[in-house]
Amino acid sequence: MQIFLPEKIGFCFGVKRALKLTLNEIKRNGKVYILGDLIHNPQVTENLRRRGIKSIEDLSQIREGTLIIRSHGEDPSVIKEARKRKLRVLDTTCPYVLRVQKIVRSLSQKSYQVIIVGTATHPEVKGVIANVTKGRVYVVKNSQEAEKLPFLKKVGIVAQTTENVENFNHIVKNLTKKTRECRIFNTICRIIRERQEETKKLAREVEAVIVVGGHNSSNTHQLVKLCQSLEVKTCFVEKEEELNMKEWKGIKRVGITGGTSTPKEVIEKIKNKLLTTIY
């Protein structure tokens, strides 16, 4: 069996930054809390829990210490309330996400109707929506949903940073027919775009692809969809234990890729398991 990996695997800049800031804060302060998960990866989340970080659902659960703002961003009102409660706030929001929030605030202040291409329930999108200061915001995830939007005189379109490039472009093409004035911002993370292109190239050169990452990771799901769209055998796993080795006998060329929140060592473990078990 030959195993192929993209040139770049493992964490992106935003994830590395969030982890570094969080680990430093755990060393500095024994009382560290976070709303939700820092990133969408179960191994990382468990590691942080073992190191002492505590996950909470509401600010009322803590009275002192540090509140970590996850890499996906947060509602500005939550940050304001945390500071009002005299909590130390450490913001690890990805710079790419902060840029989307800034664009949306500006569009809203200039009376543009904001349209976000992405998943409405995702933490990043919820945080972006919270930055709309006036007017209505629409979230669409596919062309069918975009078609249902009413005619809007003046719109500004942004993307969830982990959105599929082709899906974004297709939706934008349809939306421009439903407005008089349209401002378009391709806010998909550059690293995400590169990872998607590398994955497409990989999928065309192998018989099967293993996509590694958290099942709640948006950017990992996008890689899975890309591989499936190219009609290559696709397996989506979080860790090596999920691999059914019987499925891989007889396959000569396998590609392994992972989301930007997937640790490099998890991908390497899967690679080694394939090589040692098959042979």
Written description of the protein model:
It is a single chain. The protein is of the alpha/beta class and 279 residues long. It folds into three domains: 2-10 and 191-278, Cobalt-precorrin-4 Transmethylase, domain 1, CATH 3.40.1010; 13-94, Rossmann fold (3-Layer(aba) Sandwich), CATH 3.40.50; 96-188, 4-hydroxy-3-methylbut-2-enyl diphosphate reductase, catalytic domain (Cobalt-precorrin-4 Transmethylase, domain 1, 3-Layer(aba) Sandwich), CATH 3.40.1010. It has ten helices and twelve strands. A four-stranded parallel β-sheet has the order 1-12-10-11, sandwiched between helices. Helix 4 runs parallel beside helix 5 and helix 8 (190-203) runs parallel beside helix 9. The longest helix is centred in the N-terminal third of the chain and has 16 residues, at 13-28. The protein starts with a strand and ends with a helix. The model has no long low-confidence stretch (mean pLDDT 93).
Topology:
Layout: E1 2-4, H1 13-28, E2 32-35, H2 42-51, E3 54-56, E4 66-69, H3 76-84, E5 88-91, H4 95-109, E6 113-117, H5 123-129, E7 137-140, H6 143-147, E8 152-159, H7 165-175, E9 179-184, H8 190-203, E10 208-212, H9 218-229, E11 233-237, E12 253-258, H10 264-278
Parallel strand pairs: 1-12, 2-3, 2-4, 4-5, 6-7, 6-8, 8-9, 10-11, 10-12
